[in-house]
Structure formats: C-alpha cells, structure tokens
Amino acid sequence: MTTTSGTAERPPVALRTEALEQLLTERGLLDPEAMNAIITTYETNVGPLNGAKVVAKAWTDPEYRRRLLEDGTAAIRELGFEGPQGEHIVVVENTATTHNVVVCTLCSCYPWPVLGLPPSWYKDPAYRSRMVKEPRTVLSEMGLELDDDVQITVHDSTSEVRWLVLPERPAGTEHLSEEDLVPLVTRDSMVGVAKAEVP
Questions:
Q1: What would the pLDDT profile of 152-195 be if each residue is shown by its tens digit?
Q2: Separation CA 34–CA 121 (nearest Å)
Q3: What string of DSSP letters covers 16-71?
Q4: Which pTM was predicted?
Q5: Is there a catalytic annotation at residue 108?
Q6: Does 104 participate in catalysis according to the annotation?
Q7: Smallest Cα–Cα separation from 167: which of 197, 135, 132?
C-alpha cells in the first residue's frame, strides 16, 4: 500500500530521522552539506569498499597477502586506509578447511576504516553471545552452511585489537583482475558470516 506522500513504506525511524534533521536545519544547528559530507565519507570513503580493495589486492598479489597476514594495520595503511577504529587490525585467512568469524562480545568494536559502520546485527546481544557458544548454528541461521570438517575459529574484537577476515577466493576467478574481484567481496565475508560472492 502506498500513499500519495510515499511515507507508508518507509520505516518509522527513517521518518523520525528526517523530521529531526529538518528541525535542526531550520534552527541553524545543522548544516545539510556537512551532514552529507559525513554520510558520504562513511558510505564511500570509509566503508566496505575499502576492505574489498584490500582483499582483492591480497588475492592477486602474494607478497601483499603475506604482509597483510603478518601486519594487517601496516599493509592496510599502504592502500591509504587508516584512522579511528583502525589503529590495530589483525587479518586472518579463511581456507577450505578453516573458517574465521568476528564478534565483539563486550560492545561493537569494528574496523571502521575498512568496513564502515557496523551493521545492526553485529551489535545485537544475541549475535554477540551466541556466536561464541554456537558459531556453526548462528552461521547456518545467517545463511552460511559449512561442512562438519571445517574448523571454525571465533575472534573477539576489543578496543585494542580489531579483526578482519580475508575470505577465501572463489573458485573460477583466476582470470579476473584485481578491479574485477572487488565487487565479489562483501562486508559480511570480511566479518566471516558469509563467503565472497561467486561471479
């Protein structure tokens, strides 16, 4: 059902946010251009696209991959991605026999420079507690089925150390360039709750 105003399909939080933004703008407390710049920064410049570029480079450049696994923070900085919430990032690699997944049991520590803002499910208490206790079940509920012989390791992010998963490169992508590989890498695959997309 759609009304003439087009608000029927929009969630209440979106409507409240828009109303608050309009009120703050009218009172001169918010500059819409500054707000748009911040949003663009987190959607485009600081976000999953950055992490996807890191992963695609690691998939195509063995020397970079080695550096990334040895010192994630330094290797990520080589590509120009750094800043708050990215001071110390450890990268772990998924393979056919090992699967890594990231959680923050205390709050929602997350490597913003390469993944952007954390999704709501990452901050959810159920995800934070259950992923540690029953990772295979939670991954299955999120749509990722792993064979019983795949070893799952759960990494707990903290304010001192944030984790990034280097997903396994999809089979049949050997002919793809680094640029072509970037769209296959999702935020969820870099958290470990999904695999990279198959082209």
A1: 999 999 989 999 999 999 999 999 999 999 999 999 999 999 99
A2: 28
A3: HHHHHHHHHHHTTS--HHHHHHHHHIIIIISSHHHHHHHHHHHHH-HHHHHHHHH-
A4: 0.79
A5: yes
A6: yes
A7: 197
